[in-house]
Amino acid sequence: MILASASASASVQVSWTQTARLGEKVTLLEDQTPFVLSSGECDGCPDPAISVDSKQTFQTFEGFGGAFTQASAVNWRKLDATGQAELIRAYFADPADGGLGYTLCRVPINSCDFSPESYTFDDVEGDVALEHFDSTVQKDVDLGMIDMILAAEAAVKERANRTASKGLKLKLLASPWSPPAWMKLPVHGVYGDPGEGIRTMTGSAKPFGLDPDYQASWANYFGKWLAAYKARGVDSLWAVTVQNEPEASPGWESCLWTPEYMANFVAEHLGPTLNATHPEIKIFGFDHNKDHVAEWADGLYKNKTAADYFTGVAVHWYGGLNTENLQKAHEVDPTKSILGSEACNCIGHVVLQQDGVASWWTRAERVSLDILEDLKWWAVGWIDWNLLVDVNGGPNHLKNLCDANMIQDVAGQKGDQPLIKQASYYYMGHFSRYLVPGAKRVQVSNTVEVEIPQVTAGDIKDGAALLFEPCDADSAVQRFRFAKPEPGDKIAASLIAAGTDDAPGSDGYQRGGECVELCIMPGCWFPKVQLWACGDGGEADHGGRGNQKWDVQSVKGGYKLEVRGSPEGAGGGEVKGCLTTVKAEGWAVDLDAGLEVIAAQLAPCLSDGTSSQTFLLSGDGEGGAARSNAARRRSLTCIAVQRGGRVAAGEFLHGWDGRREALPRASDPKAAALRRRRLPQPRRDGRSRGDEHKRQAGGVYAQGRGARPRGQALAAGARY
Q1: Catalytic annotation on 651?
Q2: The pTM is what?
Q3: What does the alpha-carbon distance between residue 715 and residue 387 come to, in Å, rounded to a whole number?
Q4: Is 245 marked active-site?
Q5: How far apart are CA 53 and CA 514, in angstroms?
Q6: 198-220: b or e for each residue (b if 16 or more CB lie within 10 Å)?
Q7: 470, 533 Cβ separation under 8 angstroms
Q8: Options 62, 153, 245, 517, the catalytic residue
Q9: Which candidate in 342, 365, 651, 692 is catalytic?
Q10: Which tops the pLDDT comparison, 65 or 720?
Q11: With contact defined as beta carbons under 8 Å apart, do 70 and 31 qualify?
């Protein structure tokens, strides 16, 4: 490895810290033995090498952090004084003292979904002059938000004083979820609508929600809120976004905007108002998923008056990596910033280490990949969502529960730790502790190639999602077998990933293998089909309710696979339905939300021969499946195991023409080259999928591009 820099020193000693997992063993932000990089010009550098050129610089970083939501403050208040101090230390203290060194955070203006209830600071209808605005922001005081922010500010100031870091201070980004209901246009056809429409914080008219008659009042509301926080002693206010997630109205506090309406509002109202009352406050537009950031940047900056007020655009991670859109947004105006302003794992519950190391770790890996890609594509900072939630992922007054880097468990529901640090906490430290405000991204060239190993049966773990990919005749894990029906069960049998019962690395080792099952665990809020160690009926969620038994029925064109469960399924309902090919976003199979996949899911059984539920059997494996001649004539895709978070970078590269689509098949030399490269691995909201390495575990095929399968297999006759 060679370091090329402006310095002519002979070598550079590098201190480094590692967070890693090997099986069940983890290391968390542990210092490692330093190593030495040679220094010099890179003409004639050996190959392979990683070369760092600090003379070529790009964007300057503002910092990293999380959000002082109402939920965070409520949970912080539940900790005793020692616990409160520990959370502030863990997030905001100097890395030398074990902290993450946070310096860039976010706070909601008014309530958000992570509030005990909806509220604003002026609910007096028609108060255009905002005479009744609560300049004490007492609600935020009562919830603990102000005290929590002040404690964080003090920690950062103490750090700055002790380390003589001139100018180091906490920076706050403030974002509204909704104006007061009386400032919004009426929404029609929703609960509570008397017929003339209803003005509500938890819904929005289309295409925009803010009543044009109240634009000036809403702009002044920003100014009054900023002044009220300053009066409470908060001196870290740095910027605002115009609206949180302006493209979504999901049932909690929201307000829709178009790029043109937002640009006009900033040009004519918010920009001039803040320039007159709080000239130091920056304005960011958009504040939503990266799939549309380029279009919004173009729409916002077209208004030249508005463009002068905008510092840049803020983005969320829920729609996937979408790096090409970040590049396009940068190219619209390279003088503007891109800021990562929200991300978290939100699928309705918290995943702790004790719930399974693989799932716990995978969530953190996704966070790290999103940060890496955002920083590579011009982001100046990255803000996580809630700083603290409870063990259920709240409180959230609309039950949109999410995970966080730290979990409050004062009641001891999950153990004896009142404050639990998640794997994602340690991953965040690899960025926030070292990329300090003022640091710049530099040029890095990498010619190191790592061969990505093929997936084997031993790689298949509990919870692995199933999806359809081009068939690979050489895959060692693209085979399934039917177990013989148990005595007395003449219809249904288990469908097992071949070899998993004999592979020591698999969770199904010596447990009968990994069975295809309908997920009825509490965290499965959609009909996910996954693999899990074959149950003997003792575990209710894994075989005890019949969710691992499949009835193979001969139908026109192939076979239908129907799960044969008991009437004690998820939510007390029946476990029933048919295996189905479903177009989905990547999060449905534990991949990047920006990918498009064909997922294996359960759906109500349709008429016999329906293409999405009709499969071909091939091979002579246990269970006596027959080979269909149709399989020889069709181009098929196979069911594949999503490898539990071990995802290669190639999966997240985009089509050669810039569209979000799958990479070329292995026969394409471009794809073959990409498979040799590897990066560290990666929703509250949610397209290109990859074919990077042979990670398919198959037997179920959906019609599309692919090689003719060999061996024991199932094939879907659906055409995509």
Answers
A1: no
A2: 0.82
A3: 46
A4: yes
A5: 48
A6: bbbbbbbbeebbbbeebbbbbbb
A7: no
A8: 245
A9: 342
A10: 65
A11: no
